[in-house]
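Recall that a protein's primary structure is simply its ordered list of amino acids. Everything else, from secondary elements to tertiary packing, is in principle encoded there. The following example makes that idea concrete.
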Amino acid sequence: MFRKQRNVSLLPNYLILLLLAGFAIGPLVILSFNSVKDTTEIGANPLGPPTEIHLENFANAWREGNFATTVKNSVILVVATVIAELIFAGMAAYSLSRLHPPGENAFMLYMLVGSTLPVWLFLVPLFSLWRILGLINSLVGLIILYTAFNSPFSIFLLRSFMVQVPKDFDDAARVDGANTFQVFTRVLLPLTWPGFLTVGLIVGLGVWSEFQIALIFISKPDLFPVTTSYYNFTERFGRDWSLTSAAAVIMLAPILMLFLGLQRRFIDGLTQGGLKA
């Protein structure tokens, strides 16, 4: 009897969660429906399921939007940025959590303040500097920017994982003859891999969906990531809702599948890592 009353009392919570889920998932469902309709059917039935499947929309969008090139560019940006972020942020987090270099607190405060400032404050001087260095219209230049902008969060999160590992593990490894690098790679890294996975996924999602920086620093169509390519695609085919919907699905599908595949580990990593000082 008590359990039944408790379930009834939770019903409003479930309804609210269901409503929020509908707001989150509904647009993706409608987008998926429209991606396999023709333009006429979208005009007549923009929200409902399709009556006829038009898979050729994906082939046409892929060809007209040059997504073979731009998806490859985005994959390069994501993979390179994630690798660089995990290496540099991992070593910085290890230093801050274990070695305690001079000025550690000042550095942490600097990162905290810097991470609260909007990116737009730095774009004008960075654009001038990148033009002098020849990094405009360069994927390497974008990788450096993405790595730098994501570093404060990555360092904070990885450090929060590392401070939870008892230093007795480090001491035991050093007794066995391990040096500092070996302690990091053979002790802390295996024990904090959920944090590295979480950082990699967050950074990867952010780089794949990033638009503003790429729009400013990349002007050659052959170097566009998928987001700026989609923007140009909508400028050309803005009235063809079937093609633009198919292109949006092409842009979202890879990163959405990656997130859904790693969602459980991602949430576990965030909950285990709680940003500790």
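The chain is about 80% helix and 0% strand. The first helix runs from residue 2 to 9.
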